[in-house]
Amino acid sequence: MKKLLIRLKKLPKFQWLAISVLVATFFTYYGVTSYINSGNEEPRWMVCNPKKDDRKPLYLMFHNTNKYEWNYKKRKWVKSINKYSREVMPTIEMYEDKSFFEESRIRWKLRPIYQSDNYYVFYQRTGGVAMFKGVAADKMMAQHIIMNRGDLSLLYYENEWIKNKFRKRKYDDEEIDKLFKEVEKFVSPYEDILLSNGKTLTASRSLDLFQCKEVSSIKPKI
Is 219 a domain residue? Predict the structure, then answer.
């Protein structure tokens, strides 16, 4: 390699310049294509408007990526240190406050617990934390965010299917189809959850429908 570089430098200036341009073009092209083939895609920014007047819009970022752990010092997403958690997967960031996409803040990404050709189901746990003594903790709940991959309709399904309480919700496309049909009718604020001991828990839930659309002007400043 060293001998080749020495020979190239001895070429006339115009030939050296032409070869340099070709080399730069080669690495630029294959650098770009290797990034595309790596599975990381540019994020898609969305606003999701509720079907009910008492709900706020949701601001959502969808991203196929393997960078889904927030580095507090660098203030950016990084790959997991766990080599078994580095595969590319769909993720979303979701907020009711648009300013989360306009300012540098600590962020959360939701990962899927189910996906098919038709749907994504993202999960996170909320509540269950008391900040001060004598103050009751919020009730621990689970958010299952179900997105229709075809028309970008979204179900905001808050319930008590909490994974660390051994109540993981099992999904398939048929079950999700039922939820989308149910939200268009009267939605009961309760549902039955079968526990591991065979008993049934009557638990609270909410089910709301949103319609998402892409908005290119929504970008975070990080």
Answer: no
Domain that holds residue 65: 40-214
- Residue pLDDT, tens place only, 41-95: 688 889 999 998 888 999 998 989 888 888 878 878 888 888 777 788 899 988 8
H/E element holding 178? helix 173-183
- Confidence class of residue 6 from pLDDT cuts 50, 70 and 90? low
| Number of domains the chain contains | 2
Q: Does 148 lie in the same domain as 104? A: yes
Whether residue 145 sits in one domain with residue 122 = yes
Inter-residue long-range contacts of 104-112, CB under 8 Å, 24+ positions, other chains counted: 104/75, 104/220, 104/221, 104/222, 106/70, 106/72, 107/70, 107/77, 108/70, 109/63, 109/68, 109/70, 109/77, 110/143, 110/145, 111/68
Question: Both 134 and 180 in a single domain?
Answer: yes
Q: If you average pLDDT over residues 23-37, what whole number do you get?
A: 34
What are the C-alpha distances in Å from 134 to residues 128, 131, 138? Answer: 14, 9, 13
